């Protein structure tokens, strides 16, 4: 299945919708840091597939969670250097960079208050996530603190948080606070749930989508992308002024 998948996109990757996106700014490909790739071999497999799809740059964003994935900027950059070397040895033309997906917990707010440098991408964008079930009680405080520190918060996959289902007003309020939204491309295929798919479509209709990402943790996530690309809402999303190509 994977071989056929690669061949399909290799035929004309310059005309693929993923080539239009150009930059995948959310993935878990750095090996051994979180619940994504656990070996550099798996990292390379996924990078090759993303290259076959037409992506030209990948921003690798491992989780940082105070009580679970205690990654640091130094450790993340060290793994990035290893993967860059391996990609160069393969002779692949793929630009690699790193940031992180920060979980909004008390440790994260502590980092901001302590003025610890955060791993950002582009124009000082910081990728953040919350619990899928419970709304953070201090969300506004964190957003205000981030912006005061000069960062631009980007909420990863807002369509997947169950506490936001049927709460369009809450999403609009987040946007009004200055939070940018990043949708997972596989949400357009219904991969996560039909509810997540509906929220993703609604955000596209309201033009509240600023980035799209693969959020790839494993090859199975990349194998679903062609189904997502066949969605009419995938095409609508690409018609928005997405910021991916600017990265």
Mean pLDDT: 93
- Number of domains in the coordinates? 1
Largest sheet descriptor: 6 strands, parallel
- Which topology does CATH recognise? TIM Barrel
The low-pLDDT segments are: 1-6
Shape descriptor: globular
Overall structural class, as computed from helix and strand content, comes to alpha/beta
Please count the beta strands (DSSP E, at least 2 residues each): 9
Termini gap: 31 Å
Protein name: protein-tyrosine-phosphatase
GO molecular function, one term: manganese ion binding
Family: Belongs to the metallo-dependent hydrolases superfamily. CpsB/CapC family.
EC number: 3.1.3.48
Can you give a write-up of this model?
- Pfam families: CpsB_CapC (PF19567).
- It catalyses: O-phospho-L-tyrosyl-[protein] + H2O = L-tyrosyl-[protein] + phosphate.
- Belongs to the metallo-dependent hydrolases superfamily. CpsB/CapC family.
- This protein has 247 residues and is of the alpha/beta class.
- The chain has one domain (16-242): Alpha-Beta Barrel (TIM Barrel), CATH 3.20.20.140.
- The protein has eleven helices and nine strands.
- It has a six-stranded parallel β-sheet with strand order 3-5-6-7-8-9. It has a three-stranded parallel β-sheet with strand order 1-2-4.
- Strand 1 (23-24), helix 3 (40-53) and strand 2 (57-60) form a beta-alpha-beta unit.
- The radius of gyration is 17 Å and the shape is globular.
- The two termini are 31 Å apart.
- Residues 1-6 have low confidence and may be disordered.
Structural key phrases:
TIM Barrel; 6-stranded parallel sheet; disordered N terminus; alpha/beta; 13% strand; 11 helices; 3-stranded parallel sheet; globular; 247 residues; protein tyrosine phosphatase activity; manganese ion binding
